[in-house]
Amino acid sequence: MVKIQGLRAIRDNYIWVIMDDVENSAYVVDPGEAAPVKDFLAKEKLDLKAILLTHQHWDHVTGIPELCDRFGCPVFGPKIERHPTVTHAVSEGDELRLWDRWPCKVIETPGHLPDHISWVLDLNAVLHVFCADTLFSAGCGRMFRGTPEEFLRSLKRLAALPDNSLLYPAHEYTLSNLQFARSVEPGNTQLSEEYQAVKDLRDQGKPSLPTTVAREKRINPFLRCQQPALIEAVARHAGRALPREEDVFAELRHWKDVF
Ligand code: ZN
Ligand code: FE
């Protein structure tokens, strides 16, 4: 049976491991550190089949050379600005078959970086989406080298996936994102309830992830840039009218950067 497990790494990163206990092997997404992956694979007696990369920031790639040395596995990563560790460059629409069986497709999700991709794994018609630093629960990544237009488009592509799709961001930022979301929309009681629920989980040392498309559509302010209450709050904060959805997104992103 295929299972997905998050390994804590660096400070607040998750390295997602897709494992099959019948095949005794695994795929890992964005190993920013080698040690937690090696320890986990040794403990579970799993071989490493391949590494899937979403983008080339250090906290996603640093563990790759050591894991490749140890397991001799291929690295599938974005084509546009190819990272030196990538053995197989991929782009929009490319598809792997995990264990020659489960389709795992590339969608390009630029905005955080121009070459950020997400991996969409289809397990028995439920999508498991490794979206790294594009979408966080209740938030999104920083816009390092991207435009509001493309970032918004990437987020909308993720939001357009079926409601029950599971999203696996690369960072545990949910609580601080909800704090920001609440200050944007103080009257939104759903956000207060979510905040308390996530705080309880975190107090018990449990991850807040994965999340779902349905949940993000409710709580993620960056997916709600077309909603009147949010537009009004962001425009008030910016002190000017924000005629386009991209303007709302850009201001909201900027607001979060300095929050
Ligand atoms: Zn990043
Ligand atoms: Fe990151």
What would you say this structure looks like, in words?
- It is a single chain.
- The chain has 259 residues and is of the alpha/beta class.
- The chain has a single domain (2-257), classed as 4-Layer Sandwich (Metallo-beta-lactamase, Chain A), CATH 3.60.15.10.
- The chain has nine helices and 14 strands.
- Strands 1-2-3-4-5-6 form a six-stranded mixed sheet, covered by helices on one side.
- 45% of the residues are buried.
- The model has no long low-confidence stretch (mean pLDDT 97).
- Bound molecules: zinc ion (ZN) and fe (iii) ion.
- Residues 55, 57, 112, 133 line the site of zinc ion.
Named CATH topology:
Metallo-beta-lactamase, Chain A
Number of domains: 1
Element order, helices and strands? EEEHEHHEEEEEEEEHEHHEHHH
CATH architecture: 4-Layer Sandwich
> Which outline best applies?
globular
Keywords:
35% helix; alpha/beta; Metallo-beta-lactamase, Chain A; six-stranded mixed β-sheet; binds fe (iii) ion; 259 residues; 27% strand; binds zinc ion
